[in-house]
Structures are given as structure tokens and as C-alpha cells.
Specification:
Elements: H1 15-36, E1 43-50, H2 55-67, E2 72-78, E3 92-98, H3 110-117, E4 128-135, H4 144-155, E5 159-160, E6 165-168, H5 172-186, H6 191-196, H7 198-202, E7 213-214, E8 216-222, E9 231-237, E10 250-253, H8 259-267, E11 275-277, E12 283-285, H9 286-292, H10 301-308, H11 314-322, H12 325-332, H13 337-343, H14 351-355, E13 364-367, E14 378-384, E15 387-390, E16 393-396, H15 398-405, E17 414-418, E18 433-436, H16 443-454, E19 461-467, H17 470-473, H18 477-486, E20 491-496, H19 506-512, H20 514-522, E21 526-531, H21 536-552, H22 556-568, E22 572-576
Parallel strand pairs: 1-2, 1-3, 3-4, 4-5, 4-6, 18-19, 18-21, 19-20, 21-22
Antiparallel strand pairs: 7-17, 8-9, 9-14, 10-13, 10-17, 11-12, 15-16
Length: about 575
């Protein structure tokens, strides 16, 4: 036990405070001495990550950096390049993975995940493991990929070091809890230094997600002709921010909730509105908190379970007790917090208790639609405006309608850069590039084309673009046609799904041009997809399998292996959501 440090009697502390401080300083001194001369051999730790947009990768690198401060021998591994034959020999395995689409593994994890779930996976009795699973509870298959890794490791006989931690969008606090607990478990005699220094990594310099840049809107207009769709081109100034990005990155935008809906919510609450705490610890009015700090646009299972405890609704009670996924999905779809307030009143005593059941209002990520070489000091976005009517109310996407409808003349939306190293142009400009981006999926490819022109890249460029109607929905038509004329864009294939009786999508055009696509692949082309993960991206993937079979002469297994190798070689990259 550490010896206490003597605190002078005349120090301005009570007896209890002096005793606590004496013991605390003694412990810190002992830990400092221990950290200077770690006892025993270093502890091997493999940090294995799978990332779709870079968040898991960033956390994994942070963990490895922190482990290096203690008596550890960390090994950072991307699942895409991990040698699965080494898995049974791992001593301590820490897994960080996201989930995307319909509960699917990130692209970089697909091969390892498939193998691990198969009968080929070996027993793992000597492996100690723990999983940090990233997700979003707004989706039904919350953290599904991490859940599957966690349960499969257990089924194969591995030993769980620490319970799986599921992250709901914001990873900072869950990651800190998970990493500090594991460091303490793996090397308790020397872990205090690494754990105590965790906070050193949290501080960031400049503008970031925690400290967004108050941006100015330069241009904001609808790209569509009058019709059923509305897609805004938004130009944002980064002057004075010192923020720098690359094509393939995303921009995070902090939205505000509609004031009219907030006022309706407050009017329907059973208490007098006062001040409430925010996630940053400051006290603001309930109205301001609901406009700028809390999510009022999504309801999910977690919220309803908390709401039901304070509500006398027999229906909500039956919904919670049945715990049927289809019933959950049917109820949550098309409803917001306002529906709970008005139709299923809950007995909250005050504003603080009310906001305690709400999630923090999260920024929205948008694929950047510009090259910094073409637009210095600016970042451009291509945003589909979401509007719909359900349950007798007009509704819309929180961030998209914020940008289209609710910006005032003096508005300065908070923004930050989200770097995505998993979605980059080839370093060699001679490599041909194939891009598939229907709808707003065109955003990063507008940036790619600007970049390829600015850098005078010699490689061929081929774009597949689609939308419902050619007359009203041909986004960036003039720019794309100009790129065709000057040779930047060698091929432009357009799929207008509603211009004719038979619907035509980008994947249909891919199969039609399969022979030429296969020729490009054999020439070393890089293939990119941006857009909807649950439908379009899956259909594109299936189209690639068909092309590999029809024009590459491969069987089912060979075609799947060919596509998997493209992903492993970073020649098949996706920015999907």
C-alpha cells in the first residue's frame, strides 16, 4: 500500500480533505515511480478495426497511441489486411468496428466476418477479447456487426475480457470507459499512467467536431427543375478556419430543429418550461435546448422504453412488452417526438427530467462535392431535401430542411471536417476511374472530376449517374457535359428510371456495358460507389458479380473472390449510407 504524503495542519482543508489528499498524493507518487520502471514483460495487444468512414480507425489509432504509454506491445491491424491464420495465436484482441446499412459489416470487415461466421473458423480458447461496437440506435440493427463479432468469439471459446460496449453515434464517453477499463485489466500494476494520460489525447487544436467552425453560406440553390425532387447545391466558406480537406472527405453540419415544432412540444408538456442542462454542462432555456441541443426528429426503441415508464399508455406498454421488431419498426416509422408528446402524454416533473430521456442532436455528414484545388477556401455540398407527410403532419429531414428553409441572413451553421481515408482517388493519376453515383451520390464524383482536371490526371474517367427524370433531375448537367467536351469525362452513362415504362437504374446500365467495364477492370481501373447502402449499393455489387461471370468466365465462387480482391486492393471503394 502506498505511503500517504504529510499535509501541513495549517493547509486550508478540513481533516477529511487532508486525509483524502494525503492518500491520493501518495498513490500518485507510487504510480509515478511504478511507471518509470514497469515490472514484468510487456503485454501484447492486437487492436483490430473495421471502418467505413474512418471513425473506428481513428479510435483504434488513439487506443494504440495510449497503449504505448504503458507497459504494452500494441499491434494495429485493419481487418481488410489482417492475416486470419494468426487469430488463434492472439493473446489479447481488442476489436473496434462500425455497422452500416442493414446491420452489415464495413467493407473492410466483410471477408474476415464471413470466414469467422463459417464452419472454417477455428476454436479460440487462448484468445482474450473485447469489442467496441459503433452504431446508431435510429436504425433497427443497432451495432449488429459488433454484436456478431462478440457472440462469435464467445462461441469459439475465446475469453471475454470486458463486456461489449455499444456506441450510439457519439463515441467519446463509451470509448473512454471501454479503453480505461481494459488498460486496467490487462496491466493493473502499470496501467494508471496510460489511463490517466487518456485526457491528453482528447484536447484538440483548432476547429473540430467538438469545436465546429461558424461558417458562412455563399450560395444555396435548388439543382432540380420544378418537379417532385429538390436537391440543393450549397457552397460554404472555410475562410479563417484553417480547415483543409481532400476529395472523398465529408463535412459535418450541425442543424437546428424547427422552432414551430419545438414550441408545439413545449406547449404539450405537463410542466412549466425553465432552464435545462445541455450535454456540454451549460444551462439554457428549454426552448433553446430543444432547438439546438436535443434530437426531436427520431424516436426509437430506447426512447419509447423510457417514455413508457412515465406514460399511462396501454398501447406503449404492450409495444414494450411484446418487443416485436416489426411492431417497433411500424410504430417508429414516420413519427417524431411531437407524436409522443401529443398522443402518449408522459408525466415528467420538470425540464431536466424530460431532456434526460432525449438523445443529443447529432451533426449530419455530407460527402463533399468539391475539390479544394478548384475552390480554395470553400466546400460544396449536394443535399437532397427530405420532405414527407405522415400521420397527418408535414415533416422533413432535420438538417436538409434546416439548410433549405430555416437559415436566416445572419446564420452561421457550425461545420467540421470528417476525413475519410477509405475513399480516396488513386495516387497514380494514370489509373482509370469508374464512378457510380445516382442522385446525391454524385457529390464526391463532382469533386473527383474537379480534382482529376486540376491535377491533369491522364487516367480515363467513366461516370454512371441516375435519377427519375432527365428533364428535371439531371444534376450538374452543364458541368458534366463540359467535362465530356474537354475530355475530362470519357464516358457518361445516364439512367432515367421514370422516363420510360420499364425502370432503368445504374446497375442495369452496368450490366449492359459489362464487356467494356470488364476491360477497364483488367486494365487496372479503380471502381467507386456512393449512395444508398441498403438497395443501390447491393444491386451494384450484384451487377459486378454478374459481369465477372459473364465477361470474366468465372464461376460464382471465382466471381465473389475477384470482387473481394478488388476491395482488398482498394480498387473497389464505397461511400454508402
Amino acid at each position: 500500500m502506498a505511503s500517504p504524503i504529510q499535509i501541513p495542519d495549517n493547509a486550508p482543508f478540513s481533516p477529511d480533505q487532508r486525509q483524502w489528499l494525503s492518500e491520493f498524493l501518495g498513490q500518485m507518487l507510487a504510480k509515478s515511480a511504478g511507471a518509470a520502471a514497469p515490472a514484468g514483460p510487456s503485454v501484447p495487444v492486437t487492436v483490430l478495426y473495421a471502418s467505413q468512414t474512418g471513425t473506428s480507425e481513428g479510435l483504434a489509432k488513439k487506443l494504440v497511441k495510449n497503449l504505448k504509454k504503458g507497459n504494452f506491445e500494441p499491434n494495429l491491424q485493419d481487418m481488410a489486411s489482417y492475416d486470419k491464420e494468426k487469430l488463434p495465436m492472439e493473446k489479447n484482441l481488442l476489436v473496434i468496428t462500425s455497422t452500416y446499412g442493414d446491420g452489415e459489416p464495413p467493407d473492410t470487415a466483410l471477408e474476415l466476418h464471413t470466414w469467422l461466421m463459417s464452419d472454417e473458423a477455428p476454436p479460440l480458447p487462448d484468445v482474450n477479447f473485447s469489442v467496441l461496437s459503433l452504431g446508431d440506435s435510429s436504425y433497427p440493427d443497432f451495432c449488429q456487426c459488433g454484436i456478431e463479432f462478440d457472440s462469435r468469439f464467445e462461441a469459439l471459446g475465446a475469453n471475454r475480457l470486458y463486456p461489449r460496449v455499444d456506441v450510439d453515434v457519439d463515441p467519446d464517453e463509451p470509448y473512454a470507459e471501454w479503453s480505461k477499463a481494459l488498460i486496467a485489466l490487462l496491466a493493473p500494476e502499470v496501467s494508471s499512467t496510460a489511463a490517466a494520460e487518456e485526457d491528453d489525447d482528447i484536447e484538440e487544436v483548432g476547429f473540430s467536431k467538438k469545436n465546429p467552425f461558424p461558417s458562412s453560406i455563399l450560395k444555396n440553390y435548388n439543382l432540380n427543375e420544378p418537379g417532385s425532387k429538390e436537391t440543393h447545391h450549397v457552397e460554404i466558406s472555410l475562410e479563417g478556419s484553417e480547415l483543409e480537406y481532400e476529395v472523398g472527405d465529408a463535412l459535418g453540419v450541425y442543424p437546428e430543429n424547427p422552432e414551430s415544432v419545438v414550441d408545439e412540444i413545449i406547449a404539450g408538456l405537463p410542466f412549466k418550461a425553465g432552464e435545462v442542462p445541455t450535454s456540454t454542462g451549460e444551462e439554457v432555456s428549454l426552448r433553446e435546448a430543444l432547438i439546438r441541443h436535443y434530437d426531436i426528429g427520431n424516436i426509437n426503441k430506447s426512447l419509447i422504453e423510457k417514455w413508457q415508464k412515465r406514460s399511462g399508455s396501454p398501447f406503449l406498454r404492450s409495444l414494450v412488452e411484446a418487443d416485436d421488431r416489426k411492431q417497433w419498426d411500424d410504430f417508429c416509422w414516420g413519427r417524431d417526438l411531437i407524436d409522443l408528446v401529443l398522443n402518449y402524454p408522459a408525466d415528467f416533473t420538470d425540464g431536466e427530467e424530460f431532456v434526460s430521456v432525449l438523445k443529443k442532436l447529432q451533426p449530419r455528414l455530407y460527402s463533399i462535392a468539391s475539390s479544394p484545388k478548384a475552390h480554395p477556401g470553400e466546400v460544396h455540398l449536394c443535399i437532397g431535401i427530405v420532405r414527407y407527410d405522415t400521420h397527418g403532419r408535414k415533416r422533413g429531414g432535420i438538417c436538409s430542411t434546416f439548410l433549405s428553409d430555416r437559415l436566416k441572413d445572419d446564420s452561421k451553421p457550425g461545420v467540421y471536417l470528417h476525413h475519410n481515408p477509405a475513399f480516396r482517388l488513386p495516387e497514380n493519376g494514370d489509373v482509370p476511374v469508374i464512378m457510380v453515383g445516382p442522385g446525391t451520390g454524385i457529390a464526391p464524383f463532382r469533386a473527383f472530376l474537379e480534382e482529376r482536371k486540376a491535377t491533369e490526371a491522364k487516367g480515363k474517367n467513366w461516370l454512371f449517374f441516375g435519377n427519375p427524370y432527365s428533364k428535371t433531375d439531371f444534376l450538374y448537367k452543364d458541368e458534366l457535359e463540359a467535362y465530356q467536351q474537354d475530355g475530362t469525362l470519357g464516358r457518361l452513362d445516364l439512367a432515367w428510371s421514370r422516363d420510360q415504362k420499364e425502370k432503368v437504374y445504374v446497375q442495369n446500365l452496368m450490366i449492359k456495358e459489362g464487356a467494356e467495364l470488364w476491360k477497364w477492370f483488367e486494365e487496372g481501373a479503380a471502381f467507386y460507389v456512393c449512395g444508398d447502402a441498403s438497395r443501390m449499393a447491393k444491386d451494384v455489387d450484384a451487377a459486378l458479380i454478374t459481369i465477372a461471370k459473364e465477361h470474366g468466365g468465372l464461376d460464382d465462387e471465382g466471381a465473389a473472390a475477384y470482387i473481394a480482391q478488388l476491395k482488398k486492393d482498394k480498387r473497389y471503394l464505397r461511400d454508402v449510407y
